[in-house]
Amino acid sequence: MKHFAGIGFKSSDHALCAAFIAGSAIYAAVHVFLMISKMSFGAALVDPESLSDFFVFHSAARFVGEGGAATALYDLAAFKRFQISLGAATGGLHPFNYPPSYIFAILPFGLLPYTPALLTWLAATLLLFVLAARCAGLRAAETIAVIVAPAAMVNISAGQNGFLTSALLVAGLFLLERRPLAAGTLFGLLTFKPHLGLLIPVALLARRQWRAIFAAALSAGLLLGASLVVFGRPSGSWPNGTQKSYRSGPRTAAGTPP
């Protein structure tokens, strides 16, 4: 019997892990193939029938980068009109369900056409995750196993921010004992997707990590303050601005959002 992290593993466990990695690798290869097969490396790629989550990020970045008021991102009707001008279908909802602070992360990607922006986004966030995982002690094979896991492939195919949020969380947990101020700063940056860190304050309080709590509150407050200064306050308040836009946005003949 072999041991890892104090847990004993039988040979059959290693065979099961190898089978999981092999299956995940096949799943990953299929996902990558399908994703590349849909890509056009021209000026832009927008498939109205299969818009990825990254389309929301990219269209929001372009909207702000081209002079649109960031507060208007929470006006569903106005934002939808802009997305349609980029090639999105007239039906369906693709709202920006993030706080204004997230615009800092996505704004540079609006300078690129859709496909190069998507590839750059995935490469940059994946690199951050790999660096965080390796620094936290994951070996190369273990890191690869995580990257080819089905959940990671879903993140890639959707162009989501899972690699970014995972990098912040993994790095923060790794640094917590030795560099609590740095760890807290990373936890504060994670507030652009707050539901992923609901238990972090509980864990920090339980461990009496006062410096990390201070750093998290400070970085979150500074990030929020900077976003309000640069982008303004959303109409209503986030996320109420987006929720309000659902009620006032485009309607079908039945009176419901498309």
How many structural domains?
A: 1
Rg is: 21 Å
Regions with little confidence, pLDDT below 50 for 5+ residues: 1-9, 40-46, 245-258
Strand order of the largest sheet: 1-2
Distance between the termini: 57 Å
What does this 3D model show about the protein?
- There is one protein chain.
- The protein has 258 residues and is an all-alpha fold.
- The chain is built from twelve helices and two strands; from the N terminus they run ββαααααααααααα.
- The protein has helices at 11-37, 53-65, 76-85, 103-106, 114-135, 140-147, 150-158, 162-175, 180-189, 200-206, 210-231, 240-248; strands at 2-4, 7-9.
- It starts with a strand and ends in a 10-residue tail after the last helix.
- The chain has a two-stranded antiparallel sheet.
Task: Please give a handful of descriptors for the protein shown.
60% helix, flat, disordered C terminus, two-stranded antiparallel ribbon, mainly alpha, 258 residues, 12 helices, single chain, 2 strands
Summarize the structure in short.
60% of the residues lie in helices and 2% in strands. With 258 residues, it is an all-alpha fold. It has a two-stranded antiparallel sheet.
What is the element layout, followed by pairings?
Blueprint (H helix, E strand, L loop, with lengths): L1 E3 L2 E3 L1 H27 L15 H13 L10 H10 L17 H4 L7 H22 L4 H8 L2 H9 L3 H14 L4 H10 L10 H7 L3 H22 L8 H9 L10
Antiparallel strand pairs: 1-2
Helix pairs in contact: 1-7, 5-8, 8-9, 9-11
